[in-house]
Fold:
Amino acid sequence: MAYAASNPAENQGSTPLAIKLLVAGGFGVGKTTLVRAVTEIKSLHTEELISDQGSDFGLPGGGAGGKTTTTVALDFGRITIDDDIVLYLFGTPGQERFWFMWNELAFGAVGVIILADTRRLADCFPAVDYFELRRVPFVLAVNNFDGAPRFHSEAVRVALDLDPEVPVISCDARDRTSCRDALVVLVDYARRLLESAPAAQGPAGR
Amino acid sequence: MGSSGERWVNDEAGPVIRPYALVGGRTQPSGGRLDLIAMVRAYRGIDPDPDSLEPEHLLVLRLCRLPTSVADLSAELSLPVGVVRVILADLREQGLIHIHRPVPPTQLPDPQILRRVADGLRRL
Structure:
């Protein structure tokens, strides 16, 4: 920014590069569990203006002037990679009424883990559609719930009509190593896409 | 409700002073909306005028002695993100902080940065 470069105070040590990854998927699919497995989870609250439909959601204050605010709690965690790079992991709110939050979270995201539950595969359709459309790199991670049927990854790919290059992996959201491996697959995939994409056509934030 | 000793407000009701009272009822900071991973750092050697700042502003300044993200500030201070954004806009107007906006993925200096991220994750 213009105000930074000319200020001598700027030369007081470097600011780490912040990298944003997201965890998306349907309500209750294990997003919070995954973030908790790999980071020291924190929660933050963001308040958003919900217009018009506010009263339809039964939110307090709905209808007052046609607009109301609601508080959305977001899970996030931080992983310090080294002195220069910090990784932030955000869980996207899964409930339909909070989908509007995805725009802000998706902006500038390097990639997304979309968690899926094979018992309710359709729950991840909105996330797949959303990130496909915005060309944010994503991997599809099937959360291995106890008792859920196991499917071959190709069956999941076909069911979701995913592009052949999209990684489909299995993941146990409770297991730190498993979640870490999923993040590695995502970051490697995002890097390959960036390397192969023409500069102006790469996966943008929006 | 009528008997004495019963509290009208408990912790679950949230702070008695609504967060926006801290920032004069403003919900939109001046300047664009700050990304959750924008990194904030207080300039060293600049003494703020304590009379012009709320305690929360001073708390934010203290936390930002080391580069701290908007998300971390919100979580550390248990303040809604919107309130933190307004406070940061105030501090920026007074020239007390530098806000480092995140680099979009397509403008990363080098995709090899992501190789370092993956290697770092493998070491976890």
Summary: Chain B has a mean pLDDT of 81. The longest strand of chain B covers residues 39-42.
